[in-house]
Amino acid sequence: MAKDKLTALAPGATIGILGGGQLGRMLALDAARLGFKIHIYCPDTGPAFDVSAAHTQAAYEDEDALAAFAQKVDLVTYEFENVPARTAEVIEKHRPLFPDSRALATTQDRLAEKTFLQDLGVPIAGFAEVNSVVDLEAAVRTLGRPSVLKTRRFGYDGKGQIMLREDVSTDTAFAAIGSQPAVLEAFVPFEREVSVVAARGRKGEIAAFDVTENRHENHILRTSTVPADLSAEASKEALATAEKIVAALDYVGVIGVEMFVVREGGRERILVNELAPRVHNSGHWTQDGAETSQFEQHIRAIAGWPLGSPRRLGLAEMTNLLGEEVLKWQELAAEPGTRIHLYGKGQARPGRKMGHVNRIKPE
Ligand code: AMP
Questions:
Q1: Residue 206 and residue 350 share a domain
Q2: Is the pLDDT at 156 greater than 90, yes or no?
Q3: Band of the pLDDT at 2, cuts 50, 70, 90?
Q4: Contact status, residue 111 vs residue 183, Cβ threshold 8 Å
Q5: Model pTM?
Q6: What number does the ligand 1 atom closest to the CA of 125 have?
Q7: Nearest residue (CA) to ligand 1, atom 19
Q8: Is the dihedral of CA 187, 109, 275, 288 positive or negative?
Q9: Across residues 291-317, what is the average pLDDT?
Q10: Whose CA is nearest to atom 10 of ligand 1?
Q11: Domain count along the chain
């Protein structure tokens, strides 16, 4: 059935989520506040299991388990973009999936994503497809050094990528990413990294949160601050770019659009880096710093509810708690005005996202 003809999901219904990590956990918490039940489908147990009404622990390739899961829920979403495309298609045979399998297939493969963005006329870094060392040599001749070699699939937090500096041979670089299908990207001398977290509803309505400025350490997001230090013109360009992308994908749900800000002829310009077809770490500030959190907004969008107001409530800063930083919870709990969000993960391995804090100040 056409998605704008589907009736809105009433409270009491069950939403299925593929993936059981912290994003699923925070979606489940907000979904519960709107009266929904959550059923998690994930090959491993994870932070979302503790706060959900039901869970299925099975492989994404187990089509019988997927069908049985789909029968028990009213619609399905995902919190993890590396769900196999085939899994999404199996789900769609039984239940509506938002964002749909096309959005997933486009955004889980860097080459498909870049080709889509280029065709749409969205500014991105120069890139070339790389399937072999010979391809890589040709791509380096065109794009130069430094440049960045990234696997087409399964990259996150800087995994599956290597910078081609002068001293790295093409053989070494291609081997370092596991000799897999990849893309070479021109190096972007960016001034800052920003993102737009936006939602699109079933009828095509769009609500975007303010542009967020993101600081990474060792490729992992450290802080997000809002508003981003950006000219009004560049901010408008960032928001318009995100709107163009979700409209072209006929997207339903929340998306994270990661962008580089570069300076060209004294002007700030936006280049899109990548799309995350889900709620996004750079949108966590909205839990305490916006009228509607990104998690509630995603549930509203997929359930066919009116979108909530994305209005910002103050100056916001989100700081990820990585690894053993989570052990400071007592100190953080004693800080007036600091909002703590912990994911209930057992082992505080170095770099692992264990929680985050939001600090919102009056403007
Ligand atoms: P990604 O996995 O594509 O989000 O890349 C992770 C991080 O690597 C980005 O947030 C940037 O800090 C850096 N990076 C990725 N691509 C480029 C590029 N083409 N030029 C410069 N830095 C990059």
A1: yes
A2: no
A3: confident
A4: yes
A5: 0.97
A6: 19
A7: 187
A8: negative
A9: 98
A10: 219
A11: 3
**Of 97, 117, 143, which residue constitutes the final position of a domain?**
97
CA of 130 to the centre of ligand 1 (A): 17
Same domain, 47 and 150: no
Q: Return the percentage of the chain with pLDDT > 70, whole number.
A: 99
Bridge partners, 144 (sequence order) = none
Phi/psi at 258 (5° precision) = -90, 135
Q: Is 185 in the pocket of ligand 1 (CB under 6 A)?
A: yes
CB-CB contact of 162 with 156 (8 Å): no
Q: Give the ligand 1 atom nearest the CA of 155.
A: 2
Residues contacting 303, CB < 8 A, separation 6+: 8, 9, 13, 15, 34, 36, 75
Q: Decide if pLDDT at 155 tops 90.
A: no
Going by the DSSP 8-state scheme, the letter that residue 84 receives in this structure is -
First and final CA of the chain: distance in angstroms? 45
For residue 352, being part of any structural domain is answered with yes
CB-based burial, 266-275: b 16+ in 10 Å, e otherwise: eebbbbbbbb
Distances (CA, A) of 242 to 113, 116, 198, 209, 225: 14, 13, 7, 11, 18
Q: State the residue range of the domain holding 149.
A: 126-186
CA dist., res. 52 & res. 31, Å (int):
10
- Distance of alpha carbon 243 from alpha carbon 159, whole angstroms: 28
Which numbered atom of ligand 1 lies nearest the CA of 157? 2
- Residue 183 CA to ligand 1 center (angstroms) comes to 13
- Integer Cα distance of 171 and 184 in angstroms: 14
Q: How many CA atoms lie within 13 A of 90 on its CB side?
A: 18
> Do both 130 and 93 map to the same domain?
no
Give the residue, out of 165, 261, 273, 282, with the most ligand 1 atoms within 8 A of its beta carbon, to mutate for a pocket test.
273
CATH of the domain at 198: 3.30.470.20
